[in-house]
Amino acid sequence: MEILVILVPLALMLGGAGLVAFLWSLRSGQYDDLDGAAWRAIADDEPPQEAPVKR
Amino acid sequence: MQVTRDFSHYVREAGEGVQHIDLAVEGVHCAGCMAKIERGLSAIPDVTLARVNLTDRRVALEWKAGTLNPGRFIDRLEELGYKAYPFETESAEVAEVAESRFLLRCLGVAAFATMNVMMLSIPVWSGNVSDMLPEQRDFFHWLSALIALPAAAYAGQPFFRSAWRALSAKTTNMDVPISIGVILALGMSVVETFHHAEHAYFDAAIMLLTFLLVGRFLDQNMRRRTRAVAGNLAALKAETAAKFIGPDEISQVPVAAINPGDIVLLRPGERCAVDGTVIEGRSEIDQSLITGETLYVTAEQGTAVYAGSMNISGTLRVRVSAASEATLLAEITRLLDNALQARSRYMRLADRASRLYAPVVHATALLTILGWVIAGAAWHDAIVTGVAVLIITCPCALGLAIPTVQTIASGAMFKSGVLLNSGDAIERLAEADHVIFDKTGTLTLPDLEVMNAADIPAEIFELAGRLALSSHHPVAAAVAQAAGAKSPVVGAVEEAGQGVRATVDGVELRLGRPSFCGAEALIGSTVVDPEASVVAFSRGSDRFVLSVRQGLRPDAKAVIAALKARNIGIEILSGDREPAVKAAAKVLEIPEWRAGVTPSDKIARIEELKQRGAKVLMVGDGMNDAPSLAAAHVSMSPISAAHLSQATADLVFLGRPLAPVVAAIDASRKALHLMRQNLWLAIGYNVLAVPVAISGVVTPLIAAAAMSGSSILVMLNSLRARTSSREIV
């Protein structure tokens, strides 16, 4: 059971890192536009030139 | 006169040498739009940031200070095919956003804590049935406490604060049993850990907070989103006024930047955006949005004009007054205040549930303790069992039962063009069994339509439309639009208050008053509609009469039939004249109608219906409807409504059709049904779980499984509010 000495702090550190990452992403506004973010992921990097887009 | 556009009101400094503006944009709905807008705006030199927010339908722009006029962005967006307008974030919206972020932060903390505590709990649960040493178990419990206690102190804030507020006001709400449950569970767990006990409930307490925060966040997010959409709609109306900034110089400024005492120019065909008094000029104005009256009234020096009035014929100079100075407004405001005060605070379903819930749960816990003591158990064991009862009955599913349905139902309503102003509107709308419609602007459309276009040769009508393009008169605008005219007649001359004339191929064309066109003789034979305005058109010696009026909403008849099919009583209360109301009532087959009704009469009628036990839905748009919108059980306004009415109404619907009224009623009824079902699910869960808890055999494992099971069940059931019901009309 000596392994706990390593595993427990490791687990806590990983959990803490996850929490810090979440708080950072929240602060940097990544949850402000969830609909937009969903689309941005699949947007083309260099879309075709101003083709007449049907709206 | 020089006219400039001035948006400086909306521009703010964002750091060194950078200016920032937010624009509300109409019609952004996909990745394509987003990329198109961002590319199009970034192409403007000196723009440093152009980012679309698809959720709120807004664009944030930053550029090097002093290099660009924001008007340029609006023009660029128009070229790209989007209507945009700058907006000012209301303080209410800022507060909603801040609250929303706080709840998300709490949720994040609680969720991470839950996962980590669970990771420590599962070894304990499995260790308890195998070979775990008591020291190891204590160690794991202390670790759990180390994570759960600070996390609960932080993430529990929304509940603790609300519970404290309720207790200070000597009332109770759902947050009181939640807070008591969480605090007792944590406290007991710490004490038990001291005593090297087998069970601790850190996981249950923190998991409970996580689930409840999900409900709380959804609820808040719905409110935030509604607020954002409302802000956009207000901005996109782009209300500006032509303000005099010099004796002969005017600037088109946003209404927000106009102060009492300013002088604004009101041209024919413009809707007045401010309240004030005419100081120069003479015209006719259409006050139908204020009084419901469709006949024009004369405005001259000294006449009070209200925001929402349409100027018809002449140019006016208006001195802006503070809202309270105007007499008509003062009267309406007084009635509105009375109605708002008299409005008994509606007991929301969640409040009613919690009012029953808290005493029952606390009594059960207390009786459990006493029962075990009487049965001979030790005080310590009895109290542990009592707290277990509190933990297992903690209103996890109950806290999710209503917000989840509300969120999903309001999303569904949003899709059918209805916005919610208040959270409990869904519950109240579901109860409505009698609808009172205002006529002008509600059953009818605010824009004018040509009624007898079919009686006139198409070629003549088109010519009239082209001639009409040269006039700002709203009637002319309606003719031009109905004829689909694009190219104005060359050399057209407008004679103020009379009409437009032009000579084409040696033949004189005239459009305007019947006398202007020499068509008085035709009037008697053509016009039967009491509500219509008449405009004549002459080509050489041929004369025609066009009848122009506000048309009924395209689907009004079908909507009325659909409401009748749902056994909902319908009547019309209008401030307009009798013949006009009678005609509309006849077409729509509404037997009950009253004309010439004053705002206080409308309230009296609503009170009378209330006495009889009816739950009234008031649908109105005029400023004269505002007090009755507040007095009714629940109220709706079209988006074209007067500001005061829109702010008072519980729901606002968009677009030309009236169908959103029925769609909203259907959606809210379904939502209320699901809310009730969810409450029963939550109660059913308690009925099963409480006897287990009372008998003292609950372990943390059972508590965790029962709580998450019931919460997930309720959330899944709420998702059913999303499926749209059958075709409405």
TrEMBL record, chain A:
Segments traversing the membrane: 6-26
Keywords per UniProt: Membrane, Transmembrane, Transmembrane helix
UniProt key word Magnesium: no
Keyword match Ribonucleoprotein: no
Signal sequence coordinates: none
PANTHER family, A to Z: FIXS PROTEIN
Name of this chain's protein: Cbb3-type cytochrome oxidase assembly protein CcoS
